[in-house]
Amino acid sequence: MPKKVLTYGFFPGCAYATAAGYRESVDAVNRRLGIDLVELADWNCCGATSAFSLNQDDALILTGRLFALAEAQGHAQIVTVCNACYTTLRKAAQMLEQGSPDLARVNAGLAREGLRLGRLLPVRHYLEILYADVPAEAWSAARPEYIGRIKVAAYYGCQLTRPWADLDHAERPALLDRFFRRLGFQAVEHSARTICCGASHALPYEKECRPMLRRIVEEARRRGAHLISTLCPLCQFNLDSLQTPPDAPPIPVPYFSQLAGLALGIPPQRLGFGKLLIPAESAIAKVV
Amino acid sequence: MDDGDPNEMIDQRLAHEFLQSPKGAKLLHCIQCGTCSGSCPLAESMDHAPRELFALLRDGEVQAVLASNTPWYCVSCYQCMVRCPQEIPVTDIMYALKQMAAERGLAPAGHKLPDLYRAFSREIEAHGRVSEALIMARYGARHPIDMLGKARLGLKLLARRRLELIPRNISNRTNLTLNANRPQCRKKF
Question: Which of A92, A86, A208, A84 is CA-nearest to residue B72?
């Protein structure tokens, strides 16, 4: 196990606190691997798609404040665990580059609490930390033997790889698949990796969004996946709460960090598996 | 001012304004190939799929565009935007149209996303951070039927300690807004 501590500025985002076992599993994995995610003090909501839909100035001050806080608190990078936070921050970073007309207005707003937007820190997803910064050998040291029998459909959701991302191909990403293979799982080939889950539209327009969710779940089923694994709280919530297939049992939807924990030999009860709506224990027990 | 049809004049003024804006100007490169409509997961629910919406915009039918439900059905998956062969920032144009409609009180009354976004923004204004449960409480006050359907799910989440019912306040909430005349804009829709 690497004992060198990896330290990052951490923007958890609003959905993280109530997400199904995300925090529990990220904490457990971090403890095991020596990763220190230092939560930004006094962080605010990034505004997600909502703020940009109503008022661009508000959207930019929300995101600008986060960059300014991270810099003022001495961080070198901002790590997120949510696709929407990731995309929103990266999009805002481009809009707030030096010389942009928005930058001066945002700084005037931030000055009211003594903040100033200087350098825009790099924004990374936690997946990149686990894949790129943690040595590959760390994942095989305590791996239980059953891991290799579990088939996982890696589900990226839409925003992670879209315009402002630099971590993978916009429509045919492979990073999460490669990560699962490194953990020892079988990552199944499938065509629903970046199909949108419906995001916040799934609440007011559930009927309209169900075909999108069905396509993801049925594709995973057709490929023989025991689990669908995600890295975004909204994707996880929609896939976990809206699976009601008429003729087949639902497929559990754990976070990728929960699977990372299993591969490290951490027991499921310490990875928040009990918080999933679709229990994963029986699907895992089948192959154990 | 000449004595033309006032609606047409408003359209012309808005079309001019939009197509002159940095994002709007890019629409002049649209070749009407329909890649955006074909990529859109919710195109079937829209009054006009994106390609058609852009044709209307270029024809100057801005009021029809702003009153349509199309931008509000945009779920921000950015699929159209990464595929557009003309590199038109389709999703960002949808955002610009939503902002324009919201500012002018023209957002379609029959669509539920303006209410959801407003509930979200009010939570940010009130606390600096949002909790799904509290957004739902605000939104549910206007759309109780949607919430009734979620009662069982709510209980399951409660049993798993996944409902956050007490807001988490940040220290400097008053600084989270730039736009001084916004309350007035908000009232209109």
Answer: A208
- With beta carbons less than 8 A apart as the criterion, state whether B173 and B126 touch: yes
- Structure ipTM: 0.94
E strand or H helix that includes residue B141: helix B132-142
Among B72, B75, B148, which would you mutate to test the A interface (most chain A Cβ atoms within 10 Å of its Cβ)? B75
User: What are B17's two structure tokens?
Assistant: 């304004």
Kindly calculate the radius of gyration of chain B based on its CA atoms and give it in whole angstroms.
19
Amino acid at A213: L
How far are the Cα atoms of A207, A270, B81, B158 from residue A24, in angstroms, in the given order? 32, 7, 35, 17
Q: What is the residue-wise DSSP string for A205-268?
A: THHHHHHHHHHHHHHHHHTT-SEEEBS-HHHHHHHHHS---SSSPPPP--BHHHHHHHHTT--G
Residue B87 token pair: 């590199």
One-letter amino acid at B26 equals K
DSSP A154-189: E---SGGGSTT--SS-SSS--HHHHHHHHHTPEEPP
Rg of chain A's alpha carbons, rounded to an integer? Answer: 19
Question: pLDDT tens track of chain A, all 288 residues?
Answer: 545 689 999 999 999 999 999 999 999 999 999 999 999 999 999 999 999 999 999 999 999 999 999 999 999 999 999 999 999 999 999 999 988 889 999 999 999 889 999 889 999 999 999 999 999 999 999 999 999 999 999 999 999 999 999 899 999 999 999 999 999 999 999 999 999 999 999 999 999 999 999 999 999 999 999 999 999 999 999 999 999 766 689 999 999 999 999 999 999 999 999 999 999 988 888 887
The total of other beta-carbon atoms located within 10 Å of residue B112's CB is: 18
CA A249, CA A278: separation in Å to the nearest integer?
Answer: 10
Which H or E run includes A79?
A: strand A78-80
**CA B179/CA A248 separation, integer angstroms:** 51
Contact A227, A217 (CB under 8 A): no
Backbone angles phi, psi at A124, to 5 degrees: -130, 150
Judge contact between B123 and B130, C-beta under 8 A: yes
* Minimum Cα–Cα distance from A272: chain B residue: B160
Mutation pick from A11, A14, A242 vs chain B, by most beta carbons of B within 10 Å, is A14
Q: How far apart are CA B166 and CA B178, in angstroms?
A: 26
B121: distance to nearest CA of chain A, Å? Answer: 7
Chain A residues within an 8 Å CB radius of B160:
20, 274-275, 277
Q: What is the DSSP letter of B59?
A: T
In the 8-state DSSP scheme, what is residue A36? E
